[in-house]
Write a structure and sequence with these properties.
Layout lengths: L13 H21 L1 H12 L5 H26 L5 H26 L6 H20 L3 H21 L4 H56 L10 H18 L3 E8 L2 H8 L1 H18 L5 E6 L2 E7 L3 H17 L3 E2 L2 E2 L3 E7 L6 H17 L5 E3 L7
Parallel strand pairs: 6-7
Antiparallel strand pairs: 1-3, 1-6, 2-3, 4-5
Length: 384
């Protein structure tokens, strides 16, 4: 019985895990950055009429420039995933730049309207929260983004340290950013473990597919000659019969038997006999059409399935095979020449698989009765 052989312990390369984490993160980051103009529009809408136009223009310009650099940088890094160790620190810098672009809201837009400042701080906290799932696989990079948001706010607060409201905003933002960082760090460990598990499962799936392919091949292949076996033959003929019944597509069988093969085994031994069988299968396969299927039934008996062929067309194929086998010696050490007898039978309406094989076998007997090294078909009824 053929067994599936799968590795019980699958070691996943750390570089492969890092590369996959980067692939997922960069794709998500690029998608998120493409929605950044919505945030820009929201901030601009809130500030319009409350903040001097110059201040709004300054922030919008800085933000737009940072956005372009961020998108270009992330797309460039995505093309160099194989250099993961090189990509990670640059990715952290790009994320930090994105955080700084948002953090400049504090420096440029806060301090003009006491009612507006809490809303702007809330937006900055929202940006931090939205980006948390994106950068969760690389907490150092996420930390850089949070610092980029926090540092300008801290600078602005120091410039207005006499205003209690600004200090309260800084304390609240600091508390929020700290809590979300440490909370996401714990989740990040679990997420990265899931990425490693996913790669491990993918590797196991590939092993399983390869094993199943190997098992299927072994189950449908003759171990000695490498051609199809009886199981594959039965399946193929059943499919052709169904197609013939549905669409009227003809097909035929060639029943092959090596002439006097017992004498080969008796004279040279079974090792030479096995080599002769393998060489015979190769010789026959070369003489067939690409769509034909060669099968070993057992011993020195083979069957060729000839799809989309009438009796006359199948006979042409059989004659070509017969001539190819006898044309030159099959083996050179020892020198061994053989011939083959072939019976040709075409499927007829309402004919079962067993009846078709029996018909081909009877015609094969006809070829042997007429002297071997020849082709006979079901039209030669006088010898059956």
């Amino acid at each position: 019985m053929t067994k599936l052989r799968l590795s019980e312990n699958i070691d996943i390369d750390e570089d492969a895990v890092l590369e996959e984490r980067l692939r997922q993160t960069l794709s998500q980051a690029i998608t998120t950055q493409r929605t950044a103009p919505l945030g820009l529009a929201l901030v601009t809408l809130f500030c319009w009429g409350r903040v001097p136009f110059f201040a709004i223009s300054l922030w919008v310009t800085c933000f737009a420039l940072a956005l372009v650099i961020t998108l270009v940088g992330l797309n460039a890094l995505k093309k160099r995933l194989k250099e993961a160790v090189w990509v990670v620190p640059r990715y952290a810098l790009i994320v930090g730049l994105d955080g700084l672009a948002w953090g400049l809201v504090s420096v440029t837009l806060m301090g003009y309207d006491a009612m507006l400042d809490p809303w702007l701080a809330t937006i900055l906290c929202g940006v931090a929260a939205v980006n948390a799932p994106v950068h969760i696989k690389f907490m150092r990079a996420y930390g850089m983004q949070l610092l980029g948001i926090w540092i300008p706010t801290a600078i602005h607060t120091l410039q207005h340290f006499r205003e209690p409201e600004m200090l309260n905003l800084l304390v609240g933002m600091t508390l929020f950013l700290t809590l979300i960082f440490f909370y996401m760090r714990g989740l990040g460990v679990a997420v990265n473990s899931q990425v490693a598990l996913m790669l491990k499962n993918e590797t196991l799936t590939e092993q399983l597919k390869a094993a199943l392919t190997s098992v299927t091949h072994d189950a449908e292949t003759d171990a000695l000659t490498g051609v199809s076996n009886r199981r594959s033959l039965v399946s193929t003929i059943q499919q052709l019969i169904q197609r013939a019944q549905t669409h009227g597509e003809p097909f035929a069988l060639l029943m092959l038997d090596i002439d006097h093969f017992k004498m080969v085994n008796d004279r040279y031994g079974h090792n030479v006999g096995d080599e002769a069988l393998k060489a015979f299968a190769q010789r026959v396969a070369l003489a067939l059409r690409p769509t034909d299927m060669l099968t070993r039934l057992g011993g020195e008996e083979f069957v060729v399935v000839v799809p989309s062929a009438s009796l006359e067309a199948a006979r042409v194929v059989a004659q070509r095979v017969c001539a190819a086998v006898s044309a030159t010696p099959l083996l050179t050490e020892p020198i061994l020449s053989i011939t083959v007898s072939i019976g040709v039978a075409a499927w007829e309406k309402a004919m079962t698989l067993e009846a078709l094989l029996e018909s081909a076998d009877r015609v094969l007997y006809c070829a042997k009765k007429q002297g071997r090294n020849r082709v006979c078909d079901t039209l030669e009824l006088d010898c059956i």
